[in-house]
User: What shape does this take?
Amino acid sequence: MPMPTKTWKTIPAYFTLIAALQKKGAVTDTELFEALTDEFHDLGYKDFSDLILKLEISGKIRVTSMSRGKRRVELIA
Assistant: This one.
């Protein structure tokens, strides 16, 4: 019986999120979610929101409300 080929990711999701913000600059939360789900296929929107909240509390990113249901995410230098 073949062994499953699914392995753990070596780079954590928060690091990938910060790298995407460094590359793209300030983006909307939906654009950032799509960028992360390309790498992390099993990442849900709730997990993504929790990740953004933790990074915002730790002072790494700033999240501002744009319009109804849209948020702007930017990296704090």
About this structure: The chain is about 45% helix and 15% strand. Strands lie at 27-28, 61-65, 71-75. The radius of gyration is 14 Å.
